[in-house]
Request: fold
Amino acid sequence: MPLPPVTPLSCNNAAMNQKTPWLLYIGLVALGAIGSLVAYQFLQRSPSDPNLTQSPTATLGETMPIAPTESESLLCESANYRAELMADGSQVLISFEEKSGGGMLFNAPTSVSGATADQRTYQFQGETTTTVTVYASGECEMRVVSGSTGQTTVQETGHLRTESSIMPLPEQPQQDTRTYDDGYKDGYDDGYKNGQNFRRYNTGNNPDAAFGGGAMTQNSQYNRGYKDGFYTGFKDGYGHDRPSPTATPTATPTATVLPEEPNQDDLSMTCSGSIQDSVDFTAYFTRESGFSRIELRPVTSDRTITSYLSYDGKNDEGYGIWRGSVAQMAEVVLIHLSTEAAQRGDQVSVGYDGRWGRATCR
Reply:
């Protein structure tokens, strides 16, 4: 059988077959070049490129909060100053500091003014008026005005950000193992020095006034020894009769304590009043600690502010003075309006941030 005829290739088909390998080669080279360009552009991008990673800051159109929460505070920071706003229940506290010079305010209570959906102003008014205005746009402004001259001492704008305000758990206090004898020795030394000073400055033989708040520890055994030692030391210091250290008794020296009124150690009182109808207060007194604590309640707030007082001597009229402060800024002063040992029915005068009120102790 004869073979079928073979169809010869046309010129066009032969030419196409010869071009195919070159077209494939050129295509592969082009794809490689495009891939290299894409990789180069990828490597050139900043790690903060929003198309590559999620930015931790607010994006365009997003607003910042203008009120702190229990878990998140607001931080306003400029080139030279820093202010932090923290929520404590319904009260907002402010801490303000100069970056190069340390703290100027610490956890001071504020009032809110000029509140809108886009901005809010927080203000603490003491010897100086500190104001922080925050804006939903992420900006903020800090201003400090002197209370005495009315001059603006600080005025800077900054940027607003949030910061976690969850505080670490407080450390457990170490157990106080000091004994009665430890307290007696410490109290005697302090009492002797006070007795000498009272005699030197002609303040009178008044150990009650000198004792004031006493030891003020959680160790009642140490406190009892301190008080007994203080009264004995005061008597010796006032009379310049200091015995040898070996004379410290090893048992409760009830016979050496100065005469006291009946049930003196059991006396405790509260003295409640008002300061110009703007701040209610309650002062607390015990024989052991004196007027050692006062609670202030602004009538415009549900917050109670506690200030611990220390005895500061007597004024020209012979009245005992106790002093403390609020947030290390506003001074608190209590004056016991009597020259005798405190008792029920006595009156006290209380000053807070330059304003005064009076109360009767019950």
Q: What stands out?
A: Residues 45-60, 241-264 have pLDDT under 50 and may be disordered. Residues 11-44 form the longest helix (34 residues).
